[in-house]
Specification:
The protein has a 6-stranded parallel β-sheet with strand order 2-1-3-4-5-6, with helices on both faces. Strands 7-10-11-12-13-14 form a 6-stranded parallel β-sheet. The chain has 433 residues and is of the alpha/beta class. It is 37% helix and 17% strand. It contains 17 helices and 14 strands.
Length: 433
Amino acid sequence: MKIAFLAMSGLRAHDPELLQLGLTLPGVIERGKVVTSMPSLGLLILAAATPVGHDVAYYEAEDAGRVPAEVFDCDVVAVSALTAQAFEAYKVAGQLRSARIISVFGGLHATVCPDEAAKHFDHVVVGEGESVWPELVREIAAGASQRIWRGSEFAPVDMQHLPVPRYDLLKDGNWNRFPVQTTRGCPWRCDFCASSIMLGLPYRKRPVDQVIRDIRAVKSIRKRPFIELADDNTFVDLRWGRQLCEALIDEGIHWFTETDISVADDDELLRLLRQARCRQLLIGLESTNADHLAGIELRTDFKRRRGSEYRDAVRKIQAAGVTVNGCFVLGLDHQGPEIFQQILDFANDVPLFEVQVTVMTPFPGTPLYQRLLDEDRILEPGRWDLCTLFDVNFRPKNMSVEQLRRGMYWLVERLYTRDNIDARRLAVLKTMS
């Protein structure tokens, strides 16, 4: 069979005023290019797990109107999409059905809304797909009827022996960064985080030598790749993190990853991060005030416990030679209208090399979604296309919907001017040892 792996790509936003700002502000444009420039690691792993004897190819589409024509020459198309792209994915499924092509849907949205997805796709994969996919392909080849496939009914995914993702499928593309996974999951359970719901499994680390194997596979198709470690929280295990960085030193690559603020606790890890050429850490700060963070992390209130340390921790990380992209969430229950000025002041005073601001988003399947639904605070339930991280689809607790929208505009206009960006970055570079 000819099998296409199709990723729905691109940023989404509906708010017209915010869209207009994004078209003109350099910081938003730069981040948008980064986010949309990376292929789907999940699909590349599934391509590697495909039984021998089938032809596979990787494609991307920003919407249902821009699906590559080659996709419609295939026998099976496996689609991956974020929640904000779900309706576009359903349109693609309709096109595939009209062309009598078998369609498969997996990923975060498929996992939390499988019955909805099954109305559009022939097969839906719930949870991790590496163990499911080979059997699914064999059954499709044998004429299997439509069904929902649940990862929990198959052997657990062996994180010690993942196949090398099919990076070779990307060799003719223009991607400027490549994803490599080192860990899966996160020990913290933040109420707004969809990925922890998707995985539902403990935090797991891959063997360091397997990570290096994958990086070298990327280097075989791109001489000087930029690597993004596609993890939710890479350095939870600080000792393992030191081992990873030591192995990365000789690879000669520049890289980026996401982690939490506790990375600042380990001086040796900070030294190794710079030596291993880590360019930036993305850290979810969420808010500037520790009191705003109460109850966000549902197991140990991790965010609240560490929130008062943010300023010193970020300064320490950046002084060690690694820049920080500090991420904030607007509209948290304990935030009032003063939060917009507070974030601007924090970003400029620390200063942060990069800043990312998003609107609190109730993704389906998360504790946040259920809580806001129970409190009748979701404005349009089921509007998955508003789950963009930029559109407001809930009633905040301590400000109005319009205050949240207007505050977002105000903050974005000030954070992302060229002068402000340059001033923050220059100030950070001066502090680096």
